[in-house]
Write a structure and sequence with these properties.
Layout lengths: L2 E8 L3 E3 L5 E3 L1 E2 L8 E6 L5 E3 L9 E13 L2 E6 L10 E5 H7 L6 E6 L5 E4 L2
Parallel strand pairs: 4-11
Antiparallel strand pairs: 1-2, 1-5, 2-3, 5-11, 6-10, 7-8, 7-10, 8-9
């Protein structure tokens, strides 16, 4: 699995969604500023917080937990659909972290991703 967020490419590896969320990442050579692009990142690169985090990650979004899926030692936390109807973002966290956070469907949490983990590509 991979997380995919659609939007418009801006200068410096920034992607802006139709609903005003900004994602910071590394732009691929094919990205054209002002045109459709996608931000891609691995669910394992996503940290989950109960409260809005402070620190170095440039990308933080508030989401509603839709489901929790056990994958052995890893729990995939899937968020509700994105505002444009795209599949919800996913985070892969340890079972210990999920238990500590006491996550359940319907909970509002923050997904946070460092910019170095996000790749911005031109939309196909």
């Amino acid at each position: 699995g991979v997380n995919l967020v659609g939007g418009t490419a801006q200068a410096g590896g920034v992607l802006t969604t139709q609903w005003g969320t900004t994602w910071h990442g590394s732009p691929a050579p094919d990205v054209v500023i002002g045109e459709s692009a996608v931000a891609l990142f691995n669910p394992a690169a996503v940290a989950v917080y109960r409260d809005k985090p402070h620190g170095s990650p440039r990308n933080t979004v508030e989401v509603t937990v839709a489901e929790l899926d056990s994958r052995g030692a890893v729990i995939r936390v899937r968020a509700d659909e994105q505002p444009d109807g795209a599949p919800g973002l996913a985070a892969d966290i340890t079972a210990e972290s999920a238990a500590e956070l006491r996550l359940a469907p319907g909970d509002r949490v923050y997904f946070s991703v460092k910019a170095q983990e996000v790749a911005v590509h031109q939309s196909p």
